[in-house]
Amino acid sequence: MRGVSRPFFPYEDPALFKGSQPGADAHAMKARVAVPAALAVVLVVVVAAHAAFGSGGSPASAANPTPADVRGTWNTVVVYNGSLFVETLHIDDESTQTGAFSGTVASPVGRQAIAGKATASEVSFTIRFGTGVEAGDGQITTSALGARITGTFMNQTGGNARILATRSA
Questions:
Q1: Cβ atoms of 127 and 114 closer than 8 Å
Q2: What is d(CA 36, CA 31) in angstroms, rounded to the nearest whole number?
Q3: Tens digits of per-residue pLDDT, 155-164?
Q4: Residue 17: which residues within 8 A CB-CB, separation 6 or more?
Q5: CATH 2.40.128.120 intervals, the chain
Q6: DSSP letters along the chain, please?
């Protein structure tokens, strides 16, 4: 096609395009494929190294990421069976190694014990009040303004609830 310009990439030598012509030599065609393939291999190695070592230069532990710090006082809204409850969550203790935490929930029905485990981005927990047990999980997000936990939990009778907890920075 005459008169049609096509982009020139640094790895493409215009002389190599003769490989697409009938009777072109095999070396030129191999070069057209080998250079982009080599660049793709280098890109894969760089991406894999970044994933394994992070940007800090030391191996990142995907199996044991640093748990989110969930200690502190959280303002909490719970929606249970269509009713809205405002509660305060106090997480007093957390292991910075394992993410295991414990604390209390001040709710309209009284004080409840909470225990669970946090990872870098998720939380699982159990709330105990008398003989009742509620188990749940959720996601943790953080920003310069603070942290947020969103999730769900269920009690022993199958009642479901949604939870939103926020903590200022």
A1: yes
A2: 9
A3: 999 999 999 9
A4: 32
A5: 72-168
A6: -TT------TT--GGGGGGGSTT--HHHHHHHHHHHHHHHHHHHHHHHHHHHHTTTTS---SSSPPPP---EEEEEEEEETTEEEEEEEEEEEE-TTT-EEEEEEEETTEEEEEEEEE-SSEEEEEEEETTEEEEEEEEEEEETTEEEEEEEEEETT--EEEEEEEEE-
Q: Residue type for 90, please? A: H
Q: How far apart are CA 142 and CA 110, in angstroms?
A: 29
pLDDT at position 130 is: 87
Residue 157 CA, chain-centre distance (Å), reads: 31
Residue with tokens 């009040």, as numbered in its chain: 129
Task: Kindly report, residue by residue over 35-88, the tens digit of the pLDDT.
Answer: 344 333 333 333 333 333 343 433 444 566 799 999 999 999 999 988 999 999
Residue 122: both structure tokens together? 């998720």
Residue type, 154: M
pLDDT band at 3 (very low <50, low <70, confident <90, very high): low
Tokens of 22: 């009938």
Residues with Cβ < 8 Å from 81, sequence gap 6 or more? 159, 161
Q: What is the CATH number of domain 72-168?
A: 2.40.128.120
